[in-house]
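Hi P.,

Sorry for the delay on this. The queue was packed all week, but I finally got your sequence through. Input first:
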Amino acid sequence: MVDIPNTGSNLLVSFLTASNSDSYETVVNDSGQETLYITASRHSTGIYKAKFAYSGSSSDLYDTWRFAKDNADTNFENLVTNQRMKILAQTGENFNKVNSYVLSMPNLKPSYDKNDKVTFRINARNRNRNLNVYSSVVKSVKSSPLQEAFFKIVRVTDNYEIVGYSTASNPSFSRLSRDVSGSYFDLDMSILQPNYLYEVSFLIKQNQNYLEQKEKFKFRVD
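Then the structure:
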């Protein structure tokens, strides 16, 4: 992908109720102002984003991207009109639910030999789940496999990153694997320098957002 040249802050988005319509719908921009078009911004190479709110009655919208050639509201160059965007009525259940997890590494040991090859297990419990006394004391709480999560390893003494979050890599070398027992990752200790303490962190992807977990886990390589 490549950037659209010479757009600057003049890349605008308007919304139609039909792909062949010439009547734009009123939306609300980030400043809370009603407008017929909103300013888009560059997200990354070749990718642009625009935020808006809509409270009209139409069940379908078509986003039209255009370039303002000058400050005149009528001098536009249309770039693309996308496919139908379905507008759903907002209800009590129509929101982005973000789960919060408590992580643990049950088989983590304080230290390892540099020749060890270890499979680290990650238990994830939904923080929002209400546990009664019976489930807390008598039953073991089932771990929730993480749909998309990554690990990072740093050397504690100087915070040097050994393995980073590979969210943009293909294949992703630090993505957690999953099986019937939950989430895990394999680590060959020979990639780590002996006589140092290391720290493991985790990043979880939810609703297109990446959330780094508060839990940190440490081990030493001898």
